[in-house]
Description:
The structure holds two protein chains of two kinds. Chain A has helices at 9-25, 55-74, 117-121, 133-136, 142-146, 157-170, 177-182, 204-222, 256-266, 277-288, 298-313, 347-360, 402-418, 434-440, 444-469, 482-491, 495-505, 529-533, 544-557; strands spanning 2-8, 30-32, 35-37, 42-48, 83-84, 91-93, 97-99, 192-199, 228-235, 239-240, 319-323, 329-330, 345-346, 393-394, 399-400, 476-477, 518-520, 523-525, 559-561. Chain A is an alpha/beta fold. Chain A folds into four domains: 2-102 and 151-244 and 294-399, 3-Layer(aba) Sandwich (Rossmann fold); 105-148, no CATH class; 247-291, no CATH class; 402-561, no CATH class. In chain A, strands 1, 4, 5, 6, 7, 8, 9 and 11 form an eight-stranded mixed beta sheet that branches. A three-stranded antiparallel beta sheet of chain A has the order 17-18-19. In chain A, helix 8 (204-222) packs parallel to helix 11 and helix 15 packs antiparallel against helix 16. Chain A starts with a strand and ends in a 9-residue tail after the last strand. Chain B has a domain at 46-133. Chain B is 78% helix and 0% strand. The longest helix of chain B has 32 residues, at 24-55. The mean pLDDT of chain B is 89. At the A-B interface, helix 17 and helix 18 of A face helix 3 of B.
Amino acid sequence: xxxxxxxxxxxxxxxxxxxxxxxxxxxxxxxxxxxxxxxxxxxxxxxxxxxxxxxxxxxxxxxxxxxxxxxxxxxxxxxxxxxxxxxxxxxxxxxxxxxxxxxxxxxxxxxxxxxxxxxxxxxxxxxxxxxxxxxxxxxxxxxxxxxxxxxxxxxxxxxxxxxxxxxxxxxxxxxxxxxxxxxxxxxxxxxxxxxxxxxxxxxxxxxxxxxxxxxxxxxxxxxxxxxxxxxxxxxxxxxxxxxxxxxxxxxxxxxxxxxxxxxxxxxxxxxxxxxxxxxxxxxxxxxxxxxxxxxxxxxxxxxxxxxxxxxxxxxxxxxxxxxxxxxxxxxxxxxxxxxxxxxxxxxxxxxxxxxxxxxxxxxxxxxxxxxxxxxxxxxxxxxxxxxxxxxxxxxxxxxxxxxxxxxxxxxxxxxxxxxxxxxxxxxxxxxxxxxxxxxxxxxxxxxxxxxxxxxxxxxxxxxxxxxxxxxxxxxxxxxxxxxxxxxxxxxxxxxxxxxxxxxxxxxxxxxxxxxxxxxxxxxxxxxxxxxxxxxxxxxxxxxxxxxxxxxxxxxxxxxxxxxxxxxxxx
Amino acid sequence: xxxxxxxxxxxxxxxxxxxxxxxxxxxxxxxxxxxxxxxxxxxxxxxxxxxxxxxxxxxxxxxxxxxxxxxxxxxxxxxxxxxxxxxxxxxxxxxxxxxxxxxxxxxxxxxxxxxxxxxxxxxxxxxxxxxxx
Lengths: 570, 133
């Protein structure tokens, strides 16, 4: 099954990063030969954003690099160029297709040169139009048409919607910049899940998701035999940026003196770091004209966005998900976009990524003709979430509980790296790990190579696990840290941690059953190393990814839900 | 029969320092047999220890014995051979008087060789052969 994740704007890009993280950690989308896995499916990431070099894009690129390394370590063959592939997890095309809505077809060389709304919309593209400016005047103020929009649409969907509509139209032409990047002809007659994600309250997301959704939805309706599905996750305000260093003018245009004074006063602040004096002046002018994300208006914009979907857009989607927080997290650093806008991964973005996984699994959510009311636990503290607060999703036949997945991967990390006697020749391994022994005993080189690569892969898995839920402000925001503290010993190599987990996975004297339980939040499992040793693929030519996925799937079967103290008492 | 052959040979005289009195061959034979029995008992004890450690191993790492660990086990087993033989030698008048220090040392060496032979044979005849080959 092909999947396409279309990240619209900065929030969508962060959700794409969360999705890659979840896939790396092991989140499945289907069952194949009795094993829960995401391997066998493929994913392309498209990024629809005028801000090419945003911090979120850089962060997604780094995450994809780690994913590629992980898959390369677990792959038996020479990895394909630009395809992170193994039997551990979904194949991901590591080239993020950058769909720049400002890269529109040109009729003349002067078209779309100026990355301002006026410059883009006053194009001759569209069939013999000489100038669009007379038509734009009734809808936009002069300052709207003159603002530079190559860093996003400043949470003003009315600016972005027009550009996005022209861009979506250009996708019909395979020779246009957007058409080339998407190559939609390659998706004809191929079962594909298209999943869009962006914010409801932003600029790029708020206008990009409905326009692209409508475009894909229309294509799908016209070609029902293609077996396309179009879904989206809309992010309601879940984090708010701080106010810019100074406010906008109430009316009028700023004077040169005003701009110079403000550059002098604020030019050394982080928001202006790395800018030339001319760029600083432009940024000051932009803020004075009110082109920045206005935190106080987010909720109202999200409401308007929802009303728009209800009235005009929802029908184009097979499924629509909403994710947000009752009390948005507060970001500390104001940014005008670009690389400096590097926000940590938010727990709400992980929730949205789980929506994408639910959609990719084709499980279907509720009755297609009705709403499924979104819910969360009553005691949820959205600023300090735990894994148990995350929504479950379905692979069709079973519910996937994120907490169970994290516990399974963490336990697998420990068992793989600490409970296989890698440093001893395989022929001396005990009969309790017979299958693996038989494979390695005549091929000690393969064992040594696998040991090395498993260790490197385990390091990357540990990185994915921790940087997804660790409440370190450099990595994430919105987590309590309880889960990160619980997971850490499973991933650690210090003697005390290893001893603690080893004691729990030790077998009882007269049976193979484990002495203790491995726990994370409300989930627990009782697995001894002797039970773990029995798991190995049937055929000898298995890859590292295949072995790891089999072990993982077997471990997951053993995870139970624990009764919390006080649960059930009302 | 073997005892008679050994008694008739000069092999046993190697184990006694002085043979001035009648019956010293019997003492030499007893000392030699003692060395064999001690080697056998120590080998059996060390093999039993290993079997117990493996049986009670809580995890795969504990259950897997490397060649190095097995060699260390064999070397450690040499110590009780010395202790038991020395005790036997010191507490038995004839051994102390006739076998002497030279016979003691020769007995220990023979017992060590036999002990190592028993240990190796024990491993080779069991699934543990993979741990030393």
